[in-house]
Amino acid sequence: MTGATDRHQRHLGMVLGLLEELGITPEQLIEGTATMTSAATATFDEYVPRLWEAVSPGSRRVYGPYWKRICQRWGHRRITEPTPLEIKQLAEEIRADAVVRRNARGGRTAAEHLISALRCLYRHAVLDGLLHEADNPAAKVAKPRRLASTRRALTDTQLSAIREAAAATGNDPELDCLLLRLHVETACRRGGALALRPQDLDPELCLINLREKGGTSRWQPISPTLMGSLNSHHSERGRHDLTGRLLRYRDNRPLTSRRYDHLWQRVGAELPWVRTQQVSTHWLRHTTLTWVERHCGYAVARAFAGHVQPRNAGTTLTYVQAEIHEVAAALSQLTGEAHPLTGSNRSLGVGDASNDGTV
């Protein structure tokens, strides 16, 4: 009996010594066990509503439908139960069930979004201490390989045709032309344009504050002509509201993304190639950034686009980032108008300073 007690004490001493070497206390082991025990009671039906309240509206919009699908399939199951194989099987099922549209790509995006939705869920579960990072099953499932984008830069002739079609159709061509010029000059995304407020305009320096995806914000140069058009638009439709949306319909309602959908449907009806190739607002971003990169270099194009420096870009990129006055100089070449930050007036004909200020 004494020998058994001695062996027990020796083993206990070895374990305590190992814990001390690892910097772990017995109390931490107990807490960890309690945490993992609580994780065993967390089901998808219990955890997803909590997650819903913790993420941004953008994440809810993208991942929400997939979280609902996950709850329909696994709602009663604990979040620690699904295996990587089960996740892969569900992704393939969702890929097969994806709605077939004109721009469909075999359900790859649907499968990718499902895996991203699960990675988001398990990332928060790890932060909550509900499971260890090594036990994250979604991290072990590869996303479908993305195919090359079919978007490309438009030619001058195509861009002019789109402008003419927008100006000749619809119930508010003035608004549509203003939208097109805004996107061509700034290469902004739809979300950045829709988020604009009157207080985001700096008429003196001809800058607008673009707030886009990922919570990014940047001051983007625009031409004096476009600044005048935006100010006139606000004076006519804004009701002196400085904090509300800048872009509005004639009845003062804030613009929504549906205006873009209707715009491209109308332009596509006039120009069959627009409908066939699924041209959208993002093609304007491709067009402008391609022009800027060809004429002003990669660093200026990157700053023009508002892209965040990647983590693995290397130290050199820190020293060669373009400044705002260089973006303004590129804009001056693009539109043919002098900008307060440069004073240059070298035109390459993309914009026409002699027009009425809309396009």
UniProtKB/TrEMBL annotation:
Keyword DNA-binding found: yes
One annotated GO molecular function: DNA binding
Keywords assigned: DNA recombination, DNA-binding
Domain Tyr recombinase: residue ranges: 149-332
A single GO BP: DNA recombination
Chain intervals for the UniProt region annotation (Disordered): 338-359
Family: Belongs to the 'phage' integrase family.
Protein name (database record): Site-specific recombinase XerD
Protein's organism: Asanoa ishikariensis
